[in-house]
């Protein structure tokens, strides 16, 4: 992968990381601003909203971890190469999923293994 391509993906990953961190900051600010609701239904609605936010933030936390790993792979020169086979992942796949660490063939094998054996997939961390 060329240096301009690596820089493109680095910028894209860093932008996504910043967007996710900003969402987390906004959620934290909203939670700190919450006044105690005197009405039980209002309080329950607000708590349900926060539970949904926590689920989203948890998924985003996992994505942040994947972003950090992808940025580390850019630094160590392994970004864009399948961690299982050593084959190139391919620009179209990286455009669709910049955190990908497996080529499409390896990812399909992992998903098949998960479906057929109920095993925990060894897919992209």
CATH superfamily of the largest domain: DksA, coiled-coil domain
What's the Cα radius of gyration? 19 Å
CATH topology of the largest domain: Four Helix Bundle (Hemerythrin (Met), subunit A)
**SSE topology string:** HHHH
Molecular shape: elongated
Organism: Nitrosospira multiformis
Protein name: TraR/DksA family transcriptional regulator
Keywords: Metal-binding, Zinc, Zinc-finger
GO molecular function, one term: zinc ion binding
Outline of the structure:
It contains 4 helices and no strands. By secondary structure, the protein is mostly helical.
Record keyword descriptors for this entry.
125 residues, 2 domains, disordered C terminus
Task: Describe the secondary-structure layout.
Blueprint (H helix, E strand, L loop, with lengths): L2 H31 L6 H37 L14 H6 L7 H14 L8
Helix pairs in contact: 1-2
């Amino acid at each position: 992968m060329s240096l301009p391509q690596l820089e493109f993906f680095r910028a894209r990953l860093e932008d996504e990381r910043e967007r996710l961190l900003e969402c987390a900051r906004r959620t934290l600010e909203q939670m700190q601003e919450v006044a105690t609701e005197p009405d039980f239904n209002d309080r329950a609605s607000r708590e349900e909203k926060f539970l949904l936010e926590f689920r989203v933030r948890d998924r985003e936390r996992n994505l942040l971890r994947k972003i950090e790993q992808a940025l580390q792979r850019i630094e160590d020169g392994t970004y864009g190469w399948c961690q299982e086979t050593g084959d190139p992942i391919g620009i179209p796949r990286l455009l669709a999923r910049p955190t990908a660490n497996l080529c499409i063939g390896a990812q399909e094998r992992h998903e098949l293994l998960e479906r057929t054996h109920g095993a925990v997939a060894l897919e992209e961390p």
